[in-house]
Write a structure and sequence with these properties.
- By secondary structure, this protein is mainly alpha-helical.
- The protein has helices at residues 2-10, 19-35, 42-73.
- The longest helix is centred in the last third of the chain and has 32 residues, at 42-73.
- Keywords: Membrane, Transmembrane, Transmembrane helix.
């Protein structure tokens, strides 16, 4: 999911600040975290946890900016 989102963004098919891009990153990193239950790796855990947090922040930021734009337009 992470690679697909990145490739789509690089090809101009997806915006890097859009919800779909952020969700693909969030769920991709979350899936990797779940896979660590079988064989734990601290460095992958730290990296993917950070990826989840950054993606969640991106979703929150996009939503906040959209809400502000909607409020300003009314």
């Amino acid at each position: 999911m992470i690679l697909a989102a990145f490739a789509a963004q690089q090809m101009g098919k997806m915006r890097g600040d859009g919800a779909v891009y952020q969700l693909l990153n969030l769920f991709g990193a979350g899936g990797i975290l779940v896979s660590l239950m079988g064989s734990f790796n601290i460095s992958v855990f730290v990296l993917e946890s950070a990826w989840v947090l950054v993606s969640a922040y991106g979703l929150w930021r996009s939503r906040s900016l959209r809400a502000r734009a909607d409020a300003a337009g009314k």
